[in-house]
Amino acid sequence: MGGVFFLSNSAQAEDLPVAGGWNWSVPMYSCSVTFNNQWSELGLCKALKDNSLPLADYKGVTVYFDENAIPAADKLQFKVQNATQDGQYSSNDGSETMSITFNADNFGDDQVIIRVNLQAKEAGITAKIDKVVLIKTDGTEVDSECTADWDIAHSWGVTAESTSKVTTFQQWGQLGNWNNTLEEGYAHVYTFTFGGSGVAEGDLQIKYTDDSAIDHFSDVPAGTSFSYEVKETYTNFSLQAKKATEVEILSITREAQAATPPIELDEYKEFPELTPGDVVDLKIIRTFNVGWNTISVPTYLTPLYIKKFFGANVKVYDFIDYSDGKLNFSEMDLVSNPTNWTIDGYKAYLIYITDTDARALTGKFTIYGATVRGNADENGFVVPGGTYDEASNVTFKGTYAPLSGSDLSGSYGVLADGHVKKAGPNAYVGGYHAYFTGIPAAAEAKGVKLVIDGAETTGISQVVAAEEVFGNGAVYNLSGQRVDGKNLAPGIYVRNGKKFMVK
Questions:
Q1: Angle 316-320-326 (CA atoms, 0-180°, nearest 5)?
Q2: Over residues 142-161, mean pLDDT
């Protein structure tokens, strides 16, 4: 009551109070209450169930009555007490608001309050409370809550119920500001229930901020109810108006539950069936190195997400063409358009990582709500692509599954130190990497060079010997025995000196 939303009955459910909404003009609920007896009391602060209010932090409380149900003067009074029942009393004057300023002299040495109640001076008094706010010592207001539950907030002898009210939003006004840290594998499901004819398309949207300060938005569809699932740690989860609007909100619930597992894109496994246009959660499981990497993923990434996964100082390069032993790339802009996609599905890129704490270096990261992009095969499923230079017949080609041996004959790759290498008979490249095909055999004699925006990159060009490998695919068990890397039983293995697990 009095501005709180009760969650559905679940072991992990929790009360969801209104907290920090901006430009919502009226409270979510009004509390209709009847005081059945003389001296019946209605608790005004649920927080007092577990904590006291320190006078160092709070200086008063205000009750706002509905303009159509204001109790007559001197029928109600505040009862504010400490543990020894010392405190203050103050009667209403018949106006639409009722306030009290705490006097520290009345609360003894402990200087805390354990009870903030509204008390009837005679039986049969009725009132309708729009909202209750606690006033902090710095003057800011904090939404409080009235309740008839004695165990929660010291009420007795009252009958109270909440009724929904129409909430008015200014454009971009927000209701909410809920925050939470989520364990991996769990999600928060918010469910909004609207009264009347519900909401119209385009009036409201969900807004939240993830742990990398990236804002997420999702339109609330037309209708009387809407559920939204958040699968990552977030702040400022709010219901936001895209234009000035009024809506009757009957309830808002939030429930923690096991999240639907993301689709895993493992560099050592075959590509799962994905269809272009689907919106899914993708967990990328592959090795990235500090230094040079290739990348190809079946979705797009904006600069904000690229920096989220690969570090603030990451650089991304787009393949332009090949000429006379030079692989020409252009550095992509990660500053001017931070919310426009840079890495596109069905393409391949060079990516340079310098931040040693980049989350991609842990070997996995999850893209929530990824839109599957790319060309489809005859069955409608995504297939890897790349960038083709028609003049030279060279392709920078992505991989969505591991390749080795003859599959890579004549191709070239880029190692973490920037060296361009030709594939040998034991060459291996995992899924969600990229490699070059079509480079003429004559290039081996003088080497293949990376060129960024017209300049050869210092220290990364090299004359390569024929048949050098750019990723040895040999896999060994922990006993040092070589095993078939394409048919691995669950366990721990070693490839290129690094351990990896097959589940």
A1: 100
A2: 68
